[in-house]
Amino acid sequence: MSDQFGLDSLSVDGLQARQGTKWARYPGDLAAWVADMDFPPAPAIVQALREVAESGDFGYPVWQSKPPSPAEEAFVAWSERRHGWQVDVADVLPLADVVQGIQLVLHTCTAPGDRVVVHTPAYPPFLSSVEKTGREVVRLPARRDDTSVTGWAFDYERLDAELTARPAKALLLSHPHNPTGHVFAEAELRLLAELAERHDLLVISDEIHADLTYAPHVHRPMALFAPQRTVTVTAPSKAFAMPGLRYAVAHVGSPAARAAVAKLPDHLLGTVSLTAVAAATAAWTSSDEWLAAVLARLDANRHLVAELLAQHLPNVGYHVPAATYLAWLDCRALGWGDDPAQTFAQRGVRLSEGPNFGVEGHGFARLNFATSSAVLREIVERMAT
Ligand SMILES: Cc1ncc(COP(=O)(O)O)c(C=O)c1O
After folding, report:
1. Which CATH number covers residue 137?
2. Neighbouring C-alpha atoms within 13 Å toward the C-beta of 77
3. pLDDT, tens digit (0-9, with 9 covering 90-100), for 207-234
């Protein structure tokens, strides 16, 4: 595989010298925890940031008084080109981050005591966002199922019965699903849309990992199936390795949510910065080649994880994810208790702790494989020492 963008040329020494939280938080350890890629950024993003710096004009951006910014326009074009989803730019709200968008919708469109359905195990801020805003999580547990194309399945009949007995207000979707890497297929999205209609649910669809879906799996935006009920939150931060630049969007398709958000005071959400907009625009307009190379590297890595585990940690269960650069490791057979990441940390490798993803994460750990093959090899070898 050619390595035009230096994706496979990373070394542990170089990574450990970085200032970002992934490598700086646990000095000396190997970092495979937070969902941040190690790869060098897309050249177009670096160039766009350089142009902002060299312009010498750091005044208020024009989109503060006259939205949209070029990044929202780029999001609209990207959504159509990559996902066949036509978006009206007037429905796109720029934000600093995706979890902000989720909490914004929970605050404005649900009330304390309302119930919110979440596929579990769940990205930890899903659980904390629901709980800390005084709402209640309705768990929809994933089970391993080798007849499912992604290896995972959910019991929607049981959910239907549960919602009939005790209604909920919203469905908070991680689409694709972090941490299992499950991609919701069209039939499943139709079923979810039907359930949303029958039980009057607002759907908050977090699609931040959408552009990290491996063929032949295809990402289909939830808004295509429940356009009037969905708020989509997404960002270029995962696919384009730029979470520190702080740019995200909410597409507020639901008219009820739009009305609720419109009542917020003007400045509550702030204004997106010059650098965030420049980087997001470059990601969505001029970084296709870089993203294709990243997907090829990640595709090889998701299979390399399987090989390395078979060789070094054969008792760890792993199903190759259909999307994301996250490996959800079933460590229950190791007999290390609820939080196996603690034992891996003692060996000098930092993974995300399974119990933070809810009770379904007990005995699990999440490994981030968005790094070079050499560093990934070192990570799994050290996990086994
Ligand atoms: C499903 C999901 N949503 C949101 C985020 C975080 O996004 P942000 O930093 O924009 O809040 C992550 C990061 O790992 C994620 O996996």
Report:
1. 3.40.640.10
2. 12
3. 999 999 999 999 999 999 999 999 999 9
